Amino acid sequence: MPGGLSTKLAIRLWNLLELIEEGIKLSDIPERLGITRRVLSEDIKKLRNLGIEVKYSKASGCYKASWPENIVNLKFSPQEFFFIYYCLKNLADEDPNLKQVSSKLELKLSDESEPVYDCGPAYGISNNITEEISDLLRTLSLAVTKKLKVVFFYRNLNGNSDIRIVHPYKLIHTPVSWYLAAYCEERKAFRNFKLARISQLKTLSDHFRKKPFSLKEHLGDAFWLQHNPAKSDNPHKIEILFTGEAAESIKEYKFHKSQTFNVTPDGTLVRWELSYLGEFASWLLQWLGSFIIIEDNDLKKIIEYKIRKGYENLNIKNKS
User: Fold this and answer.
1) What pLDDT shows up at residue 40?
2) CATH number of the CATH domain containing 10
3) At a CB cut-off of 8 Å and minimum separation 6, what does 315 contact?
4) Which of 35, 44, 80, 277 is the most exposed place for a label (fewest CB within 10 A)?
């Protein structure tokens, strides 16, 4: 078969990628796959030959893999996409006519192919936006696609504005806001800019040279947009018991990649692992009265504080 193509090998490589994604340590992978350390080394080379970036971290003792994975638009499962990608990559080596098709598929399914990323869990991108935000989206989408620098005034939480020149990489939609992920020339780092705080946006004629950027690493384990790198190796282990109608509704959506659930006599017990709780706590409050926090204690404190402050503000308003 061309390029050493075989179903058995494809399945083994796919299983290897899954173990890497789970964060299984290098020392445990051979036993999990039923292969030798030498075969594992050869399989890692095969993945790299396919164009999949595989790196080893001494600190964690694990591999990390970066490969085209934005599969939503074409409705492929991750496994289906990997088999297509694997086969086409190998066949393209034998048939020059397939090289262009291979390149298009890789671009279409990579997280660099589209200017917009929707991280709003299961809800989809809303059309309920202002005309101003709509104009920003059109301008920034073009700038992302053409790799053009943009300049704008950005208002911080104190109400002050300053000028930013940035390299736009991705427009990110959450259920509550739109953001721009961009490299900021002033801060010399990637930042998220809320579109509602951007004004006087102008596209510059200067093209920027793309820096290494992984949307997956940029978002980390965020529920929507924010994560805490200091807690990534020891995230909050959340357990919520949903009751009543919420127990049924919660099963209809996959709100986060770490989400698992069990149906119990009392309702639906859902688990998440997150390094940052702010966004999750705000989302959870919509189910108020229909959930019980089993774990964790930090989340309990945040929810208790939000409820208490809301009650205090309600009393202040009623007295006035």
Assistant:
1) 93
2) 1.10.10
3) none
4) 80
User: Region 146-152: what's the mean pLDDT?
Assistant: 94
Q: Any residues with CB less than 8 A from the CB of 127 and at least 6 apart, and which? A: none
Report the pLDDT value the prediction gives residue 74, as an integer from 0 to 100.
45
Helix (H) or strand (E) holding 190: strand 189-194
Q: Measured between alpha carbons, how far is residue 27 from residues 59, 134, 304 in Å?
A: 13, 50, 43
Q: Which of 218, 239, 274 is the C-terminal boundary of a domain?
A: 218
Which two three-digit tokens encode residue 83? 């088999």
pLDDT computed for residue 67 by the predictor: 66
Look up residue 25 and give its DSSP letter.
B
CATH label of the domain that carries residue 282: 3.30.70
Domain boundary among 218, 246, 261: 218
**Overall size of the chain counted in residues:** 320
Per-residue confidence band for 304, with pLDDT thresholds at 50, 70 and 90: very high
Residue 213 shares a structural domain with residue 225: no
**Domain membership of residue 22 as a residue range:** 2-109
Do 241 and 310 share a domain, yes or no?
A: yes
Q: How many CB atoms lie within 10 A of CB 45?
A: 11
Residue 95: enclosing H or E segment and its boundaries? none
